[in-house]
Structures are given as structure tokens and as C-alpha cells.
Here is the input.
Amino acid sequence: MGKIKLSPSMMCADFLNLQRELDLFQQNEIDFLHIDIMDGHYVPNLTLGIDFCRSMKSYSPIPLDIHLMVENVDFFVERFCEFEGSWVSFHPETTWHPVRTIEVIKKRNCRAGIAIDTGVPIEQFKELYPLVDFVLIMTVTPGFAGQKLLPFCLDKIKQLKDYFNENNIRAEIEVDGNVSWESIPQMVENGATMLVNGSSSIFDKAYKRKEAIDRVRKMLEVYEKA
Here is the structure.
């Protein structure tokens, strides 16, 4: 299967000690920094913004994994694609012309992805899959950390993986939402290749950060060697 990529959700990080968090992630070869951008409209929450991304990018060499949970996505895409090398995903239902939005992201030297909300069937956006670098499957209703997994979303991961195999699509499958000690094996077995780790794994308060990272990596070894 190869290496499963880890993308800690920075909305769960210790904001009073961000430099320490970033140093630890770099030392432990974390793959991405997942940054949720919420506008209070598409989801009823406000989280991180453009200046936060600039701070992360200026300090850490770890690529940004930017998830746009916003209504006016084309307004936000232009701004968040200033961070070359970032992975930028958006919800296709938020734009009239998702193909054009994908093209804009790629022209700015970023990787383009689409995010599939919990209530959206994977078939809805099948024409877009060959155009993107990754697809993000939501396994909780987007907007807040600490939610319970919606079990039917695990089936969507497998459905997407099967569709990719049948159509020779090589896009990564990212999973976001209650990526926990209990759900990680099921997610990876069903086809996930990127994990957004939040309060139920890497930021689990029952563990020191390094211990949690090591536990996730240990769990993944059996799949990576398969």
C-alpha cells in the first residue's frame, strides 16, 4: 500500500505553543498541516484564516493541507493558493464551475482536491475525480472537532477506492472526521491514504504528542507493508 500520510488538524493544536507543535511535527516527519478554513456560512463556525496560514508557511517546511469549508469558494481559492505547494480542497457544490476552480488551484502550483460532504454520494462528482490530485471524504458533518463518526461514511471510502481502481484513477483518498484509534484501521482497510488526525488520535489529551504520533505510526505499519 505504501506510506499512509498524516495531516494533523491544526484547529486542535495548542495555540499557546504552536512553535513547539510545529517543531515536533517536523522532527517526526509529519506529511501535512491540515488547516480548516470556515466562513460561518457553509458551516456554522469560524476557525483559521489567511494570516494563520502565512505564519505556518513562514516557519515550517511542512506543506499545508487547506480545506475550504466556505460558500464563496472562488473568492477564497485565489487567496489561499498563494502558498505554493499546498494541497487545497473545496466542496464542489459551492461553485458554479468546479472544473474552472480546479484549474485555478493547479495554475497556482498547488495540488487540487474536492471534499465530499457526509450526505453527498460519491457518484455525484465522478466526472471530477480524474482531474484532481486527491479526494477528501468527510466522516462527520463538517464544522466542529470532536464529533462522532458517521458509520455509513466508511462505506463511501471503499466505494471511492473501488471506483478509482475500476477507472485507473490515482488520486489520494483523504479522510477527515473522528480519525480515532478505533476507526483508523477501518478507514485504511477501506482505502484511505491520507488521514486528518484531530482530537481522537494525534491530539488525544490522554497522550503526549510524541506518544500519540508513535501510536498512529505503529498502527499503520501493518498496512504500509502489505
Remarks:
- The chain has a mean pLDDT of 93.
- The helical segments are 18-27, 50-59, 73-80, 98-107, 152-166, 184-189, 209-224.
